Amino acid sequence: MKAIMLGVLAAFFFAAAFIFNHSMELSGGSWVWSGTLRYFFMLPFLALIVIMRGNFLDLLREMRSNWPRWVLWSSVGFGLFYAPLCYSASFAPGWLIAGTWQFTIIAGSLLSPLFYETTHTVNGVVRIRGRIPVKGLMFSLIILIGIALLQVEQASSLSLSYALLAVAPVVFAAFAYPLGNRKMMDVCGDRLDTYQRVFGMTLASMPFWLILAVFGIFTAGMPSRTQVVQSFIVAISSGVIATILFFSATDQVRGNMQKLATVEATQSMEVLFTVLGELVLLSTPLPSLLSWTGMLIIMVGMILHSFRSHGAAPTITTKLCDNKKEMILTDVSTKE
User: Fold this and answer.
1) Pick from 165, 242, 192: which is nearest to 53 by CA?
2) How confident is the model over 136-189, as pLDDT tens digits?
3) What are the structural domain ranges in the chain?
């Protein structure tokens, strides 16, 4: 129960990004500064966490050994993920972006063939190319139906081009986030813990954010004090607190796939928290019944997908051959 509560709290703080990005847009702030300031503020806090854990120098040595890949995939996983989300806030409320963002579960499944799964056997380490989990995608289609319902109201109230500008960047970000993070997991291997990797990726993505900041200075000018304060809130709430809470929740149930699936499913609450937050803080109009239905379907789809992905563990069978046991992997399924 404690892990579930931590997961729900994490979803609450993650929702701050969607709420305040929309708030900054409504107050005239540029999407450029919504993205760059968040990561600028996150950097010292994450550095402090890694330093307190005594892993700072190990991380620097690891980054120096392969810095081009660190910069490339960190820019994809963080830069090309968060900048489009901030841009889409110019065209749609936060609850719509939060709902559409759940497409990342489907995107992660579709990216599976680009990666390998490592399996340890008595004959050594075997690398097997991932495959698209067709059965899992059946549950993902539920999420897609919910997202489609969210877009119906949006499309009816906006022009097609305007609606696409609200949706297309989010879909792009949904692919960039798992792609960059998985590539960085391949680069890091087992040599770094999660906190080191998150801080390392934030540090390595700084060239991207600095370039975007220069672009922002020439196109939108310097950010207002209000936007700086709200970006700081997003950085602490979504970038630091939510991340630590979610990692703590998953660490508590590590090794128990059913409980892990339950914790991951709590992130579907982001959509609901975003709606409530915008209603209270921004006086956003109440979503229509159709939109509420879409959000409910998305949440159900996420829960079903999470349990399905963790329930499809590889099956290992043992047989006797030449008077010795050989472990044979009889079913390999890619899990999200």
Assistant:
1) 192
2) 667 677 777 887 777 776 666 666 677 778 889 999 998 998 899 888 888 887
3) 2-106+159-289
